[in-house]
Amino acid sequence: xxxxxxxxxxxxxxxxxxxxxxxxxVEEANRLVPQLPGAKTKNLFLRDRKGRRHFLVVIxxxxxxxxxxxxxxxxxxxxxxxxxxxxxxxLGITPGSVSLLALFNDKEHHVELFIDEDLWxxxxxxxxxxxxxxxxxxxxxxxxxxxxxxxxxxxxxxxxES
Length: 162
Prior knowledge:
The chain has 6 helices and 8 strands. By secondary structure, the protein is α/β, with parallel strands linked by helices. The protein has helices spanning about 1-10, 25-30, 65-75, 85-90, 115-120, 140-150, and strands at about 15-20, 40-45, 55-60, 80, 110-115, 125, 135-140, 155. The strands form 2 sheets. The protein has a 5-stranded mixed sheet. A hairpin with a 6-residue loop joins β2 (about 40-45) and β3 (about 55-60). The protein has a single domain, classed as Alpha-Beta Complex (YbaK protein).
């Protein structure tokens, strides 16, 4: 986490940090994380059927996803959740810590990023800084700068509510 925070600071990406008990689900975050000025996110680390493609899908915290529809949107067959081992291998984190900031550890760009269009309209996003015991509030311009520096492209998709 500290190397990520140093990276953000060194690149003038503003953030507000809030430490809290470990959270593993959106429901736990709603209970244990204080109200912060940003859009709550739900982050899904997925793989295709053959495990050749990996996806980080970021949607508003209140949206539910139909995996069959999602497979079509991602143009991938039988999308499913990736294992904790794949999560560690490709994003360098453990379950409960998935966030768009985990792309900090994807130096070889193995993971494709998809963000919900509705979420991308927010002024700021809430993100775990590689651990699930803290949340950062990052202005959207800072998030855009982060992706630019990481060399990750953002694919915006309109995820339907199920």
